Amino acid sequence: MRNTSKGLGRYIHWLFIAPALILYLAFKIYPFLSSIPLSFYNWSGVPGAPKTWVGWDNYRRILFQPPFSDMFWRAFGHNWIVFALLLLWSTGIGIFFAWMLTQIRVGVNFYKTIIFMPRTISIAVTGFLWSLLLNPQFGALNAGLKAIGLESLAQPWLGDSRLALPTIIAVDVWHGLGFPVLVGLAAILGVPKDILEAAEVDGATRFQQFWKITFPIIRPNIINLMALNFTGAFGLFEIVFVMQGAEAGPFYSTDLLGTLFYRTAFGGTGATSTGYGLGAALAVVMFLIVAPVSVLATRLQRRYHVEV
Amino acid sequence: MRRSVAALLTLALGAGLIAGCGGSGSQTPANGDQPANVTIWSWRPQDEDLWKAVEKKLQDQGENITIEFRGIKSTEYDSVLQTAMAGGQGPDIFTTRGGSGTGKYADAGQILALDDIVDLSGFDAGTLDQVSHNGKIYAVPFAVQTEEFFYNKEIFDQYGFEEPKTWDDLIKILDTLKADGKTGIAIGGKSGYAINLMVDTIGATQLGEQWAQDVIAGKTNFTDEKFVQVLERVDKLSEYAQKDFMASAMGDARVIFATGDAAMIIDGIWAVETYYLDTNPNIKLGAFLAPPVGNEKPLMYSYVDGGYAVNANSKVRDAALKVLAFTATSEFAQMYADANAEIPGNQHVTFPESKPMLQWAVKNWKENGLQTNFRIRSPFDAGSPDISTSLSANLQGMFSDQITPKQAAEALQKDLASWYPAFQNQ
After folding, report:
1. Do residue B247 and residue A161 have CB atoms under 8 angstroms apart?
2. Of the candidates B141, B89, B91, B87, which has an alpha carbon nearest to the alpha carbon of residue B114?
3. Given a cut of 90, is residue B318 above it in pLDDT?
4. A45 in any annotated domain
5. Torsion angle of the four alpha carbons A129, A133, A135, A137, in this order, in degrees rounded to the nearest 10
6. Which of A249, A265, A272 sits opposite B393 (nearest CB)?
7. What is the three-class DSSP state of B37?
8. What per-residue confidence (pLDDT) applies to B229?
9. What is the pLDDT of residue B20?
10. Taking CB atoms and an 8 Å limit, are B78 and A22 in contact across chains?
11. Is A3 exposed, middle or buried (0-12, 13-18, 19+ CB in 10 A)?
């Protein structure tokens, strides 16, 4: 039904989006915009403390001048590792599980529930609980491995520089897996049955049906999930902070741009030095990394859209 | 017309939302029968009962004051406080860290100078110095913290060990325990702040007063052979730690020590009551300072933990100052010592027989205290990257054999030299 009214009708959509829009402007856009000027100052963040104009110096320190540049590029590399792991574990396993849920006949709701359940726990609680489970002395995971004779697999999960980051991402994926499964499931269920049945009559295997029919149709959804993986990877902070603290140890092995930002702006291990200016510059750089990818993802999504 | 109604509605809705998100000020002005509510924030959640007792004391003295205490996790405290202060939602009284932690709030005019307002005659000059800025005192120091080796007396007795007089004695003890399949020392390798304590404790004895002064003056630096050797010895101790100690937080290490699964731990005096005795009230504790390698005098690393400061923008300033004045009394110091088994800022307290660790710590602090801090509460705290963050990360790299002690020292020096003035001309 077309809305033909000329007065209120043309603008009423603003009323409907207003609650979200105002919150978004007030708590996302405004703080971000106000951090841009801040990034050109040297300021501790204590109200009343002197603000000194330093021009592009904060950006230079972050990108080119050790020790901050070392920390920045290391954290940047870790964010890419997180992105790769999320693609594989979150989107990959998520789509696989979603497809499996369409293939089984018994217990679909049961599996859906257990996959989605962790998402109802807050990320802080999730991180805390997993820290307990992964504890080398008292934790259930290593104790369980020992009990079934797999002691050799028991690891100092969060204390080993090579394992800490993948372990944390695994916990993060465990927590969030319900979302890609839900998106994947909705997309797969949207694939017209008659096409799949026709393919089956023609002798296509289940894998061929997925690869040749389902996958191309749900590709925009997968691209969407991948874009979310990217922004998720580059915005990741909470789970690392809860499990490893702002120091993102051991030996910076779980340091991401988010934790580096936190340490830079608010200080590290019980530190008394803080740098809001430098932190703001880092936030702007992070935005410049994430924004273009989000735009690109939206375009790709349109390009691969299939009319069915 | 209808359009403007919609716009108005939109605006009203938005305004309502934003207003709903604003903070709810808990401060009530002191007038009439309404008690003045003084909010206090601290990184010491364990002080909750202490503040209830203080509130009662003040009310018994006829003050119409209530105290609302909020303990915040130490590692998150500074950012929470700073954000609240920036938003004008700061507490009336808050703990500031000694040294530059107090200085930065004083510098910004966010806390009141106390010189003529609060009676601070019970404190010695060195203690007050760590809460002073530009010649004025800005906080009432509440505790002096000391760092030391703690040991389980029952385990030492069982093996017939004496307290080690030299570094070699210590290693012999650890070797004996290791050969017997016992954990010699509990280490919380995942907690950066905790492994830093090992450097303080061992460094106090083995680096000494002169070295500490020299490094602050820039006459030497952290790549100095003496400091590298301290890191090597810290690394050596890690060979005797519990299995997978790099994945243990300090809380885990304390439980391992308190329950008798490890013979020793390097920790601060604050851990005795709050952690060890809380976990195992029957543990028999002993303590010693880091033993010397040669003929150095064993010294103790100590620092002013922090002080209570009054928010310059407090709406209940008079009541807050009354609370603060009470924290400067020997009566409060005694309450603090009794509750925490820590050394209070005010000197006029007696330390009970029932708290032998505290007596030991106070005696050593007065007789064998290192006077110049080179790590926590040192000038290396005041810039970014600070010494605590950099040192703890590089120690973790050293423990996991990714870098050598020498490389750890070099990495630390590089971080500090990027901002510490006296290192920049080297």
Report:
1. no
2. B141
3. yes
4. no
5. 130
6. A249
7. strand
8. 97
9. 41
10. no
11. exposed
More confident residue, A266 or B235: B235
Q: Which two tokens stand for residue B32?
A: 């009439």
**Residue range A222-234, pLDDT digits in tens:** 999 999 999 999 9
User: What does the buried/exposed string (b/e) look like for A35-49 if buried means 16 or more CB atoms within 10 Å of the residue's CB?
Assistant: beebbbbebbbbbeb
CA distance B44 to B289: 26
Q: Touching check for B75 and chain A: CB below 8 Å?
A: yes
pLDDT at A268 (0 to 100): 65
Cα torsion through B220, B223, B227, B228, rounded to 10: -160
- One DSSP character per residue, B273-287 reads IIIIHHH-TT--EEE
Cβ partners under 8 Å of residue A22, min gap 6: B13, B14, B17, B18
| Alpha-helix runs per DSSP H in B218-247 | 225-237
Assembly ipTM: 0.84
Residue type, A84: A
Q: For the domain that residue A126 is a member of, what is the CATH number?
A: 1.10.3720.10
Geometric angle at alpha carbon A149, from A146 and A154, rounded to 5°:
40
**Which amino acid makes up residue A85?**
L
Question: CA triplet A38, A124, A278: central angle to 5 degrees?
Answer: 15
Residue A303, exposed/middle/buried by CB under 10 A (0-12, 13-18, 19+)? Answer: exposed
Instruction: Compare all CA atoms of chain A with the CA of B7 and give the residue at the minimum distance.
Output: A15
Residue B108 near residue B138 (C-beta atoms within 8 A): no
pLDDT band at A6 (very low <50, low <70, confident <90, very high): low
- In three-state form (DSSP H/G/I as H, E/B as E, the rest C), the secondary structure along A36-81 is HHHCCEECCCCCCCCCEECCCHHHHHHHCCCCHHHHHHHHHHHHHH
Nearest chain A alpha carbon to B395:
A251
The first and second tokens of residue A120, run together, are 């109802």
- Which residue bears the tokens 């809460």? B131
- Residue of B17, B82, B390 with shortest CB distance to A19: B17
Domain of residue A117: give its range: 65-303
Taking the alpha carbons at both ends of chain B, their separation in whole angstroms is 74
A158 located within any domain:
yes
Within-domain flag for A219: yes
Do B170 and B293 meet the contact criterion of CB atoms below 8 Å apart?
no
Mean pLDDT of the region A13-42: 91
The tally of domains found in chain A comes to 1
Buried b vs exposed e over B279-291: b needs ≥16 C-beta within 10 Å? ebeebebbbbbbb
Provide the pLDDT confidence category of residue B350 given band limits of 50, 70 and 90.
Answer: confident
Q: Which residue has the higher pLDDT, A32 or B255?
A: B255
CA B180 remoteness from chain centre? 35
- Residues near B12 by beta carbon (within 8 Å), at least 6 away in sequence: none
Any domain includes A25 = no
Q: What is the pLDDT of residues A188-216, one digit of tens each?
A: 999 999 999 999 999 999 889 999 999 99
| Residues A260 and A241 sit within 8 Å (Cβ to Cβ) | no
pTM for the full predicted model: 0.85
CB B264 within 8 A of CB B186: yes
pLDDT at B23 over 50: no
**Partner-chain contact B17 A267, CB within 8 Å:** no
